[in-house]
Design brief:
The complex is a heterotrimer.
Chain A (H helix, E strand, L loop, with lengths): L3 E2 L2 E2 H18 L5 H25 L14 E14 L3 E11 L1 H20 L7 H20 L3 H22 L4 H29 L1 E3 L6 E4 L2 H4 L17 H17 L8 H8 L2 H26 L1 H27 L4 H21 L3 H32 L10 H4 L1 H14 L6 H16 L1 H25 L16 H19 L2 H19 L4
Parallel strand pairs in A: 4-6
Antiparallel strand pairs in A: 1-2, 3-4, 5-6
Helix pairs in contact in A: 1-2, 1-4, 2-3, 2-4, 3-4, 3-10, 3-13, 3-18, 3-19, 4-5, 5-6, 6-8, 6-9, 8-10, 9-12, 10-12, 10-13, 11-12, 11-17, 12-13, 12-16, 12-17, 13-15, 13-16, 13-18, 13-19, 15-17, 15-18, 16-17, 16-18
Chain B lengths: L1 H6 L6 H21 L3 H25 L5 H31 L13
Helix pairs in contact in B: 2-3, 3-4
Chain C lengths: L3 H20 L8 H25 L5 E10 L2 E9 L1 H24 L6 H20 L3 H19 L6 H32 L4 H9 L8 H18 L8 H4 L5 H10 L4 H9 L5 H22 L5 H22 L2 H35 L21 H15 L5 H20 L3 H25 L6 H6 L5 H13 L16 H5 L16 H35 L5 H8 L1 H7 L4 H72 L7 H19 L1
The chains are: A alpha+beta, B mainly alpha, C mainly alpha.
Chain lengths: 528, 111, 678
């Protein structure tokens, strides 16, 4: 499947359009704030359109995962080639992009969230130019991770995200922003180093025979790494079920678990969320967390199927702990944003549990939950942002009776909250259902304990609704204004998706069904 | 030329020219080293250049080098003119900057 | 027609909801006519459907199915199933809903969120109809939760009151606990049978498949799904939410918390009846019996008119569940239907009284007197004749006095329990059944007498009371008519000969034979042998209950206070609702607060402590290495630099800044070189 615009593949466009926007913004003078905002909006808007094109043109039957032939919109160019280095042979790094059923939904999610994020950034007045420059760079990084099929490229995009995020939290954040930004940076960086080491170990262990020259070539190509035949004799990670493969799996797992974040690697998240400005919280919860689970599915599972099966019970248990632990911690918070941060931990636990089921229902549920959670938390963080803009407060006890004051806002925010609570008819339910359905097949008791999480979730969500929206309106909140058209614009697409996918999730599930079935077969079949 | 040489008593040889040239050079160096006024220093430089010219032409006349010396002499004159123009411009700027053209007072590079 | 018609019936209320949410405020009269009108159409369509179904296609079950989503190779379908059970339930729901819409036009007049209220009623009706119409346990769960959320929204309708929002939360969360069990049950069924439809599940079980190959899991699955019913139908131990739910507007209590939603649990058990094993059914029967007894004993001492009705609802629901548990399937479901009519009537009647009391108190500018407390009422009979007479009929019906619908169904239930114990023992079940019948008659007449008979407690209040407007009394009259026997059977002493019994037959059990309850034939035989005994006993006991109430409250032959004193701790326990709320508060609410605080502390102190500790250790290490760096490593570097600097200082004296000095140096060095080279 090829889709090109001006001779350049659509994936390159979708990844680098923000960079084009960024350069244009850099050329503009500082004072032109509105032009800067509009350029960011247009750049991300084009991404949404391209994502729509991809959605329409995507072939739902192709498998992807480990089969290079069935990836779609593929682009592959030799990027760095060094001939005949001593001991190593030829070094080859490719500019290798492609998507399958696993990544297509994430691309759509990223483009939507990025666009909504720009709309919600409209009222940021501090250093507008710098803000949007970094923002667009961040978007490129995220998008790149989802389409990269070369480990080196993947790593570069991964790290490209890190720095803009650091500055966006550290410069535009709340009072403890430096602490939060550094914490975020260090956590992620530790993970990044683990990934770098594993990547190099994989690189030296994997070599494929170039059909043209007959040379043995070391490669960063992720798909080559999935093929057991490509492992060189005596390589560190060669052979099945060796200790080093377990270690490598664990190193990657920790990296991704930090991003997800999975208990006990989660404490950066509440701090980062509380201090980050609203749009950045939206991006962070909406897209960044998904990179963790995406990485597990794209890299851990297919490259180390043996280790995945070995550790899968452990992974499911961590998922369970995250669900319950996150829900209880969420209940204990007085800060609205912290509450949502912990609820994210809980909901991402469901993703982990679902994918750890290693069956199609669980996997589909998990990936759908990634998408749905992205949409739902975006709504929740936008809701907090709306209140924070008006009152400069985030404490749950600072509010009350908002429902009378801001009926439109309350309606929209409550739909988001109900979706988070797993109300049937809204999208959260569908993905939770499939995750638990899959997980129950694999782990009875872990799943039963996890499902109690939905009771606790109902508890804290309803309690939050009660404290914020219901009750008498206190004197100080009586002149709050309801949503502006811009704010409605940023809520409505998300709410529409929440309801649409809640009633009829097939369009989303169709996209990934065959790929994920194949992934399950691939992993449970030991990579053959 | 033939007539002139025949009628004069004294025919200057190469060494005469060299002596004049050396004198001129020395004067030039003296001027460059000891005058306070930049313009005077510049004039000293001109003297040095012209002494070199004399040398060039003299050698060209009295040896087998044919017209090459004259050619280079002409170049030197042209370059000297250019150099003078540049130097005068610099001097003008120096004057604007320091309000003086006394070299002793222009010592910003003092360590 | 059996596909399109139910779909229209299902979607009309949803349309009403959407229209009311977006345009309700802009319509004239805030759109109440729109909501009520659409609901009336739904009612008419449902009646048409019922008549066609029961009249012409009585023995058929009509289903339709379409693929909702395909996951892996498994496709999950949604669809509609119409059997007689669904058709009857459809009319019950739409009828009560329409009447409540009508009643609300009077009762809710002038409410702050009038159109919002009607919108939520539409949402509720939609979800409830969904429960009724679905062929699929997953879809049932979906609508199950949706009725939960509409109940939440309606209980919290007056959310400015803290008690209302608390009650709404409690209702939803307690229901979630039940739904948790139901969800697990659904998971078990799907994992085992790869389908959510009742049909496919029953077929697989019938073919001998068992969940995880064990009979225990089949029983467990049944009981787990029943958990959902325990939550929704407010059965012990999850009954605590229903009395609090009375914080919602009274018509809502009539619709949701008396007639329809709480009966959904019974409907669910009826739906999954074929797959319930004898063990599961026994558990269900006992849960029902315990609930009936507990609720009845609480109801006799309550003074809030709605609380009494709430506990009587719980008690009657216990009856229904018990009936299903013992295998009296038709009796249980029939009680659901008859109960829906008279309990909705009771609540609407109570609503009418409260409405009048409010109006009266409002006129007196009295805001401290509780308009719902029966101790403030009395003697309202003459002021509100229609309300009184209809209320009397409802009370007779719920007490099980002959010629009412309640007698028919209750009598069959009691006969069923009696028959069950002749077959299996378990004499506790019929014993509780009869005791509760007596208690019901007692507390309902207590309520009636204290509210309408005797002397008014306050003349002033009574003077201000007047009969409610027509929109409120007409629904009462319709429901009162429906509480009479002839709608269900022309024989006032036996339901078994009526159309209802022929239309709703107990389905065949599909579980392995060893696990089955008594077959229908066996059970039916036992029922007919004890039927007359049960009937006489139930009439006598009901009469005794009524007599007792009249003696205590009307004739005042026996002092109520004296009785209370004699009952001692029993009375105290009953007044305090057997301390369920207190115990739950300590165990679950405080318990989860303790857990959440502990985990928060753990998160912030231990986990974050480790992270920050690692950071601190790194910082200490960094400052040590920093010291070494500045003093030793950098010392060397700086030493080199300063040496260079000093040397430079010395040499800088040569730099005079004068051009001529430099030239002199040039000349001099040139000469030196010249001399040296030559």
């Amino acid at each position: 499947m090829e889709l090109q615009i001006f001779g350049i593949g659509i994936l390159t466009w979708i990844v680098f359009i923000p960079i084009v926007g960024m350069i244009t913004i850099l050329l503009l003078p500082d004072k032109n704030r509105n032009a800067i905002r509009w350029i960011a909006a247009i750049a991300t808007g084009i991404q949404v359109i391209l994502a729509g094109v991809i959605f329409a043109a995507f072939d739902r039957t192709k498998l992807g995962i480990n089969d290079a032939e069935s990836f779609q919109f593929m682009e592959k160019f030799s990027w760095i080639t060094v001939e005949a280095v001593p001991w190593v042979g030829r070094i080859e790094i490719n500019y290798f992009l492609g998507i399958d059923g696993l990544s297509v939904l994430m691309i759509i999610l990223t483009s939507i969230i990025a666009f909504i994020g720009v709309i919600s950034s409209w009222n940021i007045d501090k250093m507008v130019k710098g803000y949007f420059t970094l923002y667009l760079l961040l978007v490129t990084g995220m998008m790149g991770v989802f389409v990269a099929l070369d480990f080196f490229l993947f790593f570069i995009f991964w790290e490209v995200m890190l720095l803009p995020m650091y500055f966006l939290i550290g410069l535009w954040g709340g009072p403890r922003r430096e602490y939060a930004a550094i914490k975020f940076f260090l956590y992620t960086f530790v993970g990044g180093i683990l990934m770098l080491l594993t990547m190099l170990a994989l690189y030296f262990s994997v070599a494929y025979t170039d059909p043209a020259t007959g040379q043995s070539v070391h490669t960063f190509n992720i798909l080559h790494m999935m093929n057991p035949a490509n492992y060189v004799d005596g390589g560190l990670l060669s052979g099945v079920d060796t200790t080093w493969r377990y270690v490598a799996w664990m190193a990657l797992f920790i990296n991704f678990a930090i991003k997800i974040p999975l208990f006990p690697f989660h404490t950066w998240l509440p701090d980062a969320h509380v201090e980050a400005p609203t749009p950045i919280s939206v991006i962070l919860a909406g897209v960044l967390l998904k990179l963790g689970t995406y990485g597990l599915l794209r890299i851990n599972f297919p490259i180390f199927p043996d280790a995945t099966v070995y550790f899968i019970y452990f992974m499911a248990a961590l998922g369970m702990i995250s669900i319950i632990y996150g829900a209880f911690c969420a209940m204990a918070q007085d800060d609205f944003k912290k509450l949502i941060a912990y609820s994210s931990i809980s909901h991402m636990g469901i993703v982990v549990l679902g994918i750890a089921a290693l069956n199609t229902q669980g996997m589909v549920g998990g990936v759908l939950q990634m998408f749905n959670h992205g949409i739902i938390t975006a709504v929740l963080f936008l809701s907090v942002g709306v209140l924070y803009d008006r009152t400069q407060k985030r404490g749950l006890y600072d509010f009350g009776g908002i429902a009378n004051q801001m009926p439109k806002y309350t309606g929209l925010a409550m739909i988001g909250m109900f979706a988070a609570l797993g109300l049937p008819g809204l999208n959260g339910f569908v993905s939770e259902l499939f995750s638990f359905l899959g997980a129950f097949e694999a782990y009875k008791w872990i799943t039963i304990i996890s499902v109690t999480g939905i009771i606790i979730t109902a508890g804290y969500i309803l309690w939050t609704i009660q404290r914020v929206f219901l009750g008498e309106t206190p004197e100080k909140l009586t002149n709050l204004k309801d949503l502006t058209p811009r704010e409605i614009l940023m809520f409505v697409p998300l709410i529409v998706l929440i309801i649409l996918l809640g009633i009829y999730p097939s369009p989303a599930i169709e996209l990934m069904n065959s790929s994920l079935s194949h992934l399950v077969e691939f992993v449970t079949g030991g990579g053959l | 030329m033939e007539i002139l040489m025949n009628t004069t008593i004294f025919v200057p040889g190469l060494s005469h020219f060299l002596v004049v040239s050396a004198l001129l050079f020395s004067l030039g160096v003296m001027a460059v080293l000891s005058r306070r006024n930049v313009i005077m220093v510049l004039m000293g430089v001109e003297l040095i250049l012209n002494s070199a010219n004399i040398n060039l032409i003299a050698f060209s006349r009295f040896t087998e080098l044919s017209l090459d010396g004259q050619m280079i002499g002409l170049f030197v004159i042209i370059i000297a003119a250019a150099e003078a123009a540049v130097a005068l411009a610099i001097i003008l700027n120096v004057y604007n900057r320091f309000n003086t053209i006394n070299l002793d007072e222009i010592n910003l590079l003092k360590g | 027609m059996f596909i399109e018609l139910p779909l229209i019936i299902l979607l009309l209320p949803l349309l009403a909801f959407v229209l009311m949410i977006f345009f309700g405020n802009k319509l004239p009269r805030q759109g109440d006519w729109l909501a009520t009108g659409m609901m009336t159409i739904t009612l008419l369509l449902s009646i048409v459907l019922l008549i066609t179904k029961v009249g012409f296609y009585s023995s058929e079950t009509i289903t339709s199915n379409f693929d909702w989503v395909v996951v892996g190779s498994k496709s999950i379908g949604f669809g509609i199933m119409i059997d007689n059970l669904a058709a009857i339930m459809l009319v019950v729901v739409t009828l009560v809903s329409t009447l409540v819409h009508l009643f609300s036009m009077g009762y809710m007049k002038g409410d702050v969120r009038y159109s919002r209220y009607f919108a939520y009623l539409g949402l509720f009706s939609f979800s409830m109809l969904g429960i009724v119409l679905t062929n699929n346990i997953l879809l049932m769960y979906v609508f199950w939760e949706l009725v939960g959320i509409s109940s939440y929204l309606l209980i919290g309708h007056w959310y400015e009151k803290k008690s209302a929002s608390n009650a709404a939360n409690k209702a939803f969360i307690v229901n979630r606990v039940g739904d948790f069990g139901m969800f697990i049950g659904i998971l078990i069924l799907f994992i085992s049978f790869s389908s959510f439809t009742f049909e496919a599940i029953f077929e697989s079980i019938n073919a001998g498949q068992l969940p995880f190959g064990s009979e225990g899991w089949l029983t467990a699955a049944g009981i787990l799904i029943f958990c959902g019913a325990v939550g929704k139908s407010a059965q012990f131990p999850l009954h605590v939410w229903l009395p609090d739910a009375m914080e919602g507007p009274t018509p809502v209590s009539a619709l949701i918390h008396a007639a329809t939603m709480v009966a959904a649990g019974v409907y669910l058990v009826a739906r999954i009846f074929p797959m319930l094993t004898a063990d599961a059914l026994l558990v269900i029967a006992y849960i029902g019996a315990i609930t009936a007894l507990i609720a009845a004993t609480i109801a006799i001492t309550q003074f809030d008119i709605k609380k009494v009705l709430a506990y009587s609802t719980i008690s009657q629901l216990g009856y229904m569940i018990m009936a299903l548990g013992v295998g009296a399937y038709t009796a249980g479901f029939m009680h659901l239907v008859t109960h829906a009519a008279f309990k909705a009537g009771l609540f609407l009647g109570a609503g009418s009284v409260i409405f009048a009391m409010h109006a009266s108190l409002h006129k007196l500018h009295d805001h401290s007197t509780d308009a719902q407390d029966i101790r403030n009422m009395g003697g309202l009979k003459s002021k509100m004749p229609i309300t009184y007479w209809t209320f009397l009929i409802f009370t007779l019906a719920i007490s099980g006095i002959p010629l009412t619908s309640g007698f028919l169904s209750k009598d069959e239930i009691l006969a069923g329990t009696l028959a069950f114990s002749t077959l299996y023992g378990h004499w506790l079940l019929p014993l509780i059944g009869f005791v509760v019948a007596g208690l019901t008659a007692f507390y309902m007449f207590r309520l009636l007498i204290l509210t309408f008979h005797g002397k008014p407690v306050s003349e002033k209040i009574q003077n201000g009371v007047s009969e409610s407007p027509k929109v409120m009394t007409i629904p009462l009259m319709i429901l009162a008519a429906l509480s009479l026997f002839f709608f269900y059977s022309f024989n006032p002493f036996g339901a078994a000969s009526g159309w209802f019994y022929t239309a709703v037959e107990r389905p065949l059990s599909v579980v392995p034979e060893l696990l089955q309850p008594a077959t229908y034939a066996l059970f039916y035989e036992a029922v007919s042998s004890v039927h007359s005994t049960a009937m006489i006993l139930s009439i006598l006991i009901a009469a005794a209950g009524v007599l007792m109430a009249v003696a205590v409250y009307q004739w005042k032959k026996i002092s109520a206070d004296d009785l209370a004193k004699r009952a001692g701790f029993l009375y105290k326990g009953s007044v305090n609702k057997w301390y369920f709320d207190e115990v739950y508060n300590i165990v679950f609410v405080s318990g989860s607060h303790v857990v959440m605080r502990a985990l928060r502390w753990f998160d912030e102190t231990i986990i974050d402590g480790i992270v920050n500790g690692a950071a601190t250790v790194t910082k200490v290490f960094a400052s040590v290495s920093g010291w070494i760096d500045t003093n030793i490593v950098d010392g060397l570097v700086n030493g080199t630099a300063s040496t260079a600097n000093r040397a430079g200082g010395l040499l800088s004296h040569i730099q005079t800044g004068k051009v001529q000095t430099y030239l002199l140096f040039v000349l001099f060095s040139f000469l030196v070189l010249f001399v040296l080279i030559l």
